[in-house]
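Slide 14.
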Amino acid sequence: MQLVFLALLIWGAILWWARQTRPAAPLIIAHRGASAYAPENTLAALHDAIQREATWLEVDVRQTADQIPVLLHDRSVNRTTDGVGTVDKLTLDHLQQLDAGSHFSRTFSGEHIPTLSAVLQLLEASPAVNLLMEVKEPARYPDLGMRIAEAIRAHQLAERVIVMSFDGHWLQDFQNTAPDIQIGCLGFDVKDEDNLENAVFANIHWTRVLMTPWRFRKLKSDGHQVLVWTVDNLALMRLLLWMGVDGITTNRPDILSIDRL
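Slide 15: predicted structure.
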């Protein structure tokens, strides 16, 4: 009982210290845009994130039936639009007729699923912001990696975009075919050293930092910048920053941007 009490006391002291200490300016990564304030993975959410001083925009990319890369987290459009069906069975023309905003708020009625090209155009117009792109289930979408690479090069943004995926084998293949484009790894599941070797970022769930700090420290000692997802509580953000994370993915990027002023 005394050991439990002592452990709780020490942990409480750490949390209190984290709440009192102003962290160094981290990478502020807007999760699917400022998705606490606007519909996820839309241009509205990305514009909002920029206005709230996010330094990185995080988006999810899939591919349409006519092989156009678009922003969408789920395999289907059911949750985030007024349509139904999986994105790989729907054309871009069909997708752009769907309402991707009203499920969040009537204020965003008429918001559409954006193409990757539209997002890269936004990035061109916003030089202070970079893009963290998660490719969802890439094995489902033929030649998606090639099209992503072509789009990034066409907009001359290779130095401001990082491509990530939970599929470590696909990520390695992508880097082999597009060595000019930076990659990042997602999760500890991508623990093959071959996949991590050239990754700019290692992006892990925040609980892993607390539950397996030795693995987190190894990533740091190996020279990787470590990002965590998804944290919306300032006290927890400060604790994680105190422990050494380099960036935080959040639905509310204004929390960190205001706190660092």
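Speaker note: The chain is about 40% helix and 20% strand.
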